[in-house]
Amino acid sequence: MRTFTSFVIVAASSALFAAASPLPANTLEARQTRSRTTVFRPYVSASGGGNAASGNSGDVSGGNVVNQATGPGGAVNNGAGSNVGGQAGGVTPGTTGSTTGNAVGGSNGGGNAVSGSSGNARGGSVLNSGVTSVTNTGAAANTGGNGGSSTSGGATGGQGSANFNGNFGTFGSFNRPSKRQTYNGYNSYSTSGTATTGNTDNVDGGSIVNDAEPDGTLTNGAGSNNAGTGGNTESGTAIGAPGTGQSAASGNTGTANGGSIFNHGGNIDNEGANFAGNGGNSFSGDAFGANA
């Protein structure tokens, strides 16, 4: 019994020692050679593209002319070529009107772009006010300024994107070299930026106002009272960035009315006078929604 028992213990101990003993170096090297090989290509992920906001701008309207006689027997007399309302910005060469810059959202993260806003570019008006009489004689007495231009910049949303290319190996058998399987890269787009422009303001032509009080006399000679022409107001183009089908919104603009003539008095005498201004142009920019 003791001999048999001793034999069993020795055999079991030998098995344990064998399982616990470290593998030879050449065996480890062979297993590493046969194991899975995984190779990762670069993963490029970009997010948080910067937003772009332009917009705002001041008025560039032409100055007004006001003649007001308030004393007893007050009268206003305007000769040829007198009283010319200022031209709005964008009319005179060298002036640009009221314009906002373009806004382009940062790419690789989908920055939003917002432009829009701009100021008035109205032509200057002329106001004549007398107690007893207002007299306008000669050509071009009282000329309203022309409306200028008010334009908002374009807006282009930034494209959001993330690119991944991978090459994955599969497990191989310990008895044969491993297999390798290749996966083609793909493009994945994060949220792209929206584009919003719009706004701008009024570009009306200047008006003419002659007021001789209820009992006064108003006389307008030939060629007098020429109201200003309306200008151009145009909102920029909005382009949504591709990738996730973002929207684009333009719209808004101001009025581009021609200037008006207002004559008020107990007696009004017009001789080939009073020319209201022509209307200008008001354009809303194009808007292009992006494909998803």
Rg computed from alpha carbons, rounded to a whole number of angstroms: 41 Å
Range of strand content:
25-35%
In total, the number of domains comes to 1
What is the arithmetic mean of pLDDT?
A: 78
Number of strands: 25
Using the alpha-carbon principal axes, give the shape. rod-shaped
Q: Give, in order, the helices and strands.
A: HHEEEEEEEEEEEEEEEEEEEEEEEEE
* Percent range of helical residues: under 10%
Structural class of the helix and strand makeup? mainly beta
Intertermini distance: 84 Å
Biased composition (Polar residues): 180-202
Region (Disordered): 46-256
Biased composition (Low complexity): 53-67, 93-102, 114-143, 161-175, 216-227, 247-256
Signal peptide: 1-20
List keywords for this structure.
25 strands, single chain, mainly beta, 292 residues, disordered N terminus, four-stranded parallel sheet
Please give a structural write-up.
Keywords: Signal. Residues 53-67, 93-102, 114-143, 161-175, 216-227, 247-256 have a biased composition (Low complexity). The chain is mostly beta strands. The chain has one domain (45-288). It has 2 helices and 25 strands. It has helices spanning 2-20, 25-34, and strands spanning 43-45, 52-53, 65-68, 75-78, 98-99, 103-104, 113-114, 126-129, 133-136, 149-151, 155-156, 162-164, 167-169, 180-182, 186-188, 195-196, 208-211, 217-220, 232-234, 238-239, 248-249, 261-264, 267-270, 281-283, 287-288. The strands form 7 sheets. Strands 2-7-16-21 form a 4-stranded parallel β-sheet, with no helix packed on it. The longest helix has 19 residues, at 2-20. The radius of gyration is 41 Å and the shape is rod-shaped. Mean pLDDT is 78; it is low at 3-21, 23-35, 37-46 and 164-189.
